[in-house]
Amino acid sequence: MIITKTREEIELMRESALVVSRTLGMIASEIKPGVTTLQLDKMAEEFIREQGAIPGFLGLYDFPNSLCMSPNAQVVHGIPNNTPLAEGDIISIDCGALKNGFYGDHAYTFGIGEIPEDTKKLLQITKESLYIGIEEFRIGNRVGDVGFAIQKYCEAHGYGVVRELVGHGLGKTMHEDPEMPNYGKRGRGKKFIEGMVVAIEPMINLGTKNIKQLKDGWTILTADNKPSAHFEHDVALIDGKPELLSTFKYIYEALGIESTEEDKFRAKVYD
Which residues are 200's β-sheet partners? Predict the structure, then answer.
């Protein structure tokens, strides 16, 4: 069952989402060759708590850390460890926070130093597909419209669209209805209704769409060990149109990137 939110609840969810946004922005300035994912995880946990929130992933389904840290061929759910990051790596960082009784949850894939051109393009196309999917999250459309748009765009570039892992509704629990696949058929699936909040998150592979899981029970990798990219936003359906609750603004400030990609989906300017 889809749980809609009031305007007041959506504003509380925006606060939760912005805790994650600011955390990813802080982490962005710390990602460099030689740093370990465990070091970044500890920084993130402290920073989330300093903002009056609780790490949303820590202990969720018994996950042992505050961030999912998934480098290179890892798709999602990587566990932070003491292996240093290296020049040319990429890393998906997925972060959650619980504040005011509501969750924020979004992700960004970072390049570390100079990364290969084919990997750089994968990151670009995956992020572009996120906004293409968000555009379809509006009254009159269904879950399949979002998935179809993401799938069509990414497969047109020759990439593999992961099937087993999907986006989701978001609220007082981390995972609510509906599931939000990154593939599908137009006009299929649950209908979008006013007050919905979802996490849309393309997980796109440079090669095959197929995946495998490590024995740790968490880490998901591409079956061919080629790189995977992952970007995620929290989006509310307000006045029939998608509005971002999360933002990559703080990441871009840390990295010196100028972007207008969020403008059409954002009603508020963040400090």
Answer: 233
CA dihedral 56, 61, 63, 65 (to 10 degrees): 20
CB atoms within 10 A of CB 233: 29
Q: How far is CA 268 from CA 11, 32, 67, in A?
A: 11, 31, 27
Q: Which helix (H) or strand (E) holds 194?
A: none
State if pTM tops 0.90: yes
Decide the pairing of beta strands 67-71 and 90-99: antiparallel
Cα(59)–Cα(151) distance, integer angstroms = 32
**Cβ partners under 8 Å of residue 86, min gap 6:** 33, 112
DSSP-assigned beta bridge partners for residue 236: 197, 243
CA-to-CA dists, residue 207 to 186, 228, 229, angstroms? 25, 8, 11
Residue from 255, 249, 141, 125 nearest 190 by CA: 141
The residue behind tokens 């924020």 is 104
pLDDT in tens, 163-189: 999 999 999 999 999 999 999 999 999
The length of the chain, given as a count of residues: 271
